[in-house]
Amino acid sequence: MQKNSINKKQKKSKKDFSYYATILFAFSFTLLIYGLVLNYTSSNKIFDPEKDVVVVKGEDEGYISIDSKNPEESSSSQETTNQSGNKNNKTQKKSKKENQQQESNTQTIQDDNNTLRNVIQNTYGITVKYGSETEGYSVGGLTTTPIYDSATISSALNMLKSALSLYPKGLFPEIRDGGIPLTVYLIENYSQQSVTGATDSNYSFAHISIAVAHPFDESFFHESYHYIERYIFKRGLTYNTLTWNGYNPPDFTYGTIINNYSYKNTFSENSYFVNNYAQVSAEEDRASTFEYMMAPSKASCLNYGKPVWQKAILMSNTIDAALVSVSPSVTEYWERHL
Q1: Which of 48-62, 101-115, 154-168, 214-228 has the lowest mean pLDDT?
Q2: What pLDDT shows up at residue 152?
Q3: Are 198 and 209 in contact (CB under 8 A)?
Q4: Which of 306, 307, 301, 296 is closest to 336 using CA atoms?
Q5: What is the CA radius of gyration of the chain?
Q6: Taking the mean position of all CA atoms in its chain, how far away is CA 69?
Q7: If DSSP codes are grouped into helix, strand and coil, which group holds residue 190?
Q8: Does pLDDT of 76 surpass 90?
């Protein structure tokens, strides 16, 4: 009896163990399946670059976007600030370097201009002013605008040097030593825009101002003759009015402008004047004629025997007679077309 009772208890225990083992196995299997599903889902979310990765444009593209302003992101903020600061510092350094280079170049040009000015002054015995030195200069009721650009000043000085080289080397020093020193004012323009140059002179000084906004050589050649003629008059020489007017039409009076009399309008070699401005006065007639005498190419009005040619010959002979530095035996630049 007792043995049978023990066997029944053992069988019941085995049955209960088998039941619980089955439940435990089923539960473990369920946990395993859930874990795999959870791991897969989590992995899929972390590594989806299209949805969760924010692309920040780098400095090489000129754009950095930082959206967070939270305190815990201060380190990232500081890094960005440093990068931006470094960029600004580089830009500032580059800008400062460029400015220093530009200032250095400007200073070099200014030094070169001053050197060139000294060469001109020492060679030709004149005084040259430009930039702030011409501030406030006025002539004939006209105010002037100075040249401040170093490159423009350099160009004007070189044109002046080139123009002066066409005259006998001793001509300007002779007139200076004869009591009429010359100062050339290089300016941008006059208050009256159409004015290209002006000469203010008497028997003790002469000021020539040239507006570089207009063709330089034409203006300087014209004004330089006024200067030469001032010295001619100081030497006691003059033009015989009857002789000079004899080269004009019989019914002509200076101050009356007749377009058909001007070479610039008709291009006729028989013209009496080179341009309309030459009809203003005898003085302007000679200065305008001298401008054509100095021109690079010959105008047909300077052909032998023509009215303008006759005026040019008389002017040339008068200059030869008045200035020691000009020899009748030498063909000067202004005489090569005659």
Answers
A1: 48-62
A2: 98
A3: yes
A4: 296
A5: 48
A6: 48
A7: strand
A8: no
Bridge partners of 199? 208
Name the token pair of 276: 């309309």
Specify burial of residue 73 (Cβ count, 10 A radius: 0-12, 13-18, 19+).
middle
102, 150 Cβ separation under 8 angstroms: no
Angle formed at CA 260 by CA 254 and CA 262, multiple of 5 degrees: 65
- Cα 205 to Cα 202: distance, rounded to the nearest angstrom: 6
Residue range 129-187, pLDDT digits in tens: 999 999 999 999 999 999 999 999 999 999 999 999 999 999 999 999 999 999 999 99
Alpha carbon 295 to its chain centroid, in Å, reads 28
The first and second tokens of residue 195, run together, are 């004015």
For helices 282-293 and 216-234, angle between their N-to-C axes, nearest 10 degrees: 130
Q: What is the DSSP letter of 55?
A: P
What one-character-per-residue DSSP string does 18-50 give?
HHHHHHHHHHHHHHHHHHHHHHHHHHHHHT-HH
CA end-to-end distance (rounded Å), the chain: 166
Hey, what amino acid is at 201? S
